[in-house]
Amino acid sequence: MPEQKAIFYTFLSYLFLLPLFFLPYNFEIFEFNKTILTFTAAVIILAFWLIAAIRHQKIILKTSILTIPMLLFTFSQLVSTLTSVDKYLSIWGYYSRFHQSLLHSFAYLLLFHAYITWIPKKQTKKIIQVIIISTFLVSLYGFLQHFGIDANYWVQDVKNRVFSSLGQPNWLASWLILTTPLGFIYLNKHHQTTSYLYFILNTITLLFTKSKSGYLGFLIALLLLIIIPSLNRKKTSLSFSKTFLIPLIIFITASFFIWNPANLYLNSPALKNSRSNTAANTAKLHVSASQPLITSSSDIRKIVWAGAVKLWLLNPKNTLIGTGVETFAFTYYLTRPASHNLTSEWDFIYNKAHNEYLNFLATTGLFGLLTYFILIFFSYLVFIKKLTPMSLALLSGLSGYLVAIFFGFSITPTTVLLYLFPALAISLTTDHPPTLPHPSPPSVPLVYQKPAGYRPCLGYFP
Question: Is residue 452 part of a domain?
Answer without folding.
Answer: no
